[in-house]
Amino acid sequence: MTGQVATTMTRRALLAVMLLGPPLAACAPPRSAQAQAPDPLVALAVAARADAALAAAVIAGTPDLAGRVGPLRDARTEHAAALEAEVARQAGSTAIAAPPRPTSTPGAATVDALRRSVAAAGEKAGQVALSADAHRVGLVASVAACCTTYAALLG
What we know:
By secondary structure, the protein is mainly α. It has helices spanning 2-27, 40-61, 66-91, 111-131, 137-154. It contains 5 helices and no strands. Helix 2 (40-61) packs antiparallel against helix 3 (66-91) and helix 4 (111-131) runs antiparallel to helix 5. The longest helix is centred in the N-terminal third of the chain and has 26 residues, at 2-27. The termini are far apart.
């Protein structure tokens, strides 16, 4: 009879763990630093908005470059919108938080400054793509390829 009591206690303990384990685990702090890390796509979206603003400033300062720089401005605006939508989707939110407004320095609106900024954005997006999950890798790799191509065309 002693063996039967031990089996009953083990079943009760197992049942208690099964019923109370998940609710108690939900109260625990996150286990990984990755869960607390900011979404890397947010920085990519902010950079895209900054590049679009810089491209618009280049066009305003040198209207002759509109045909060359306008498509880049449009592409970077689309990148920002797509990246922000993905961040919202991943967060389970339908509202997209307004990203910080890019700051621009007077006199910094040159084609060379735009080329450097877009090249840096392409490099950063390429790094993010290497660790992106399957749902995001296509978007991020596309941003990286587009930025790298525009940087080469502006050079």
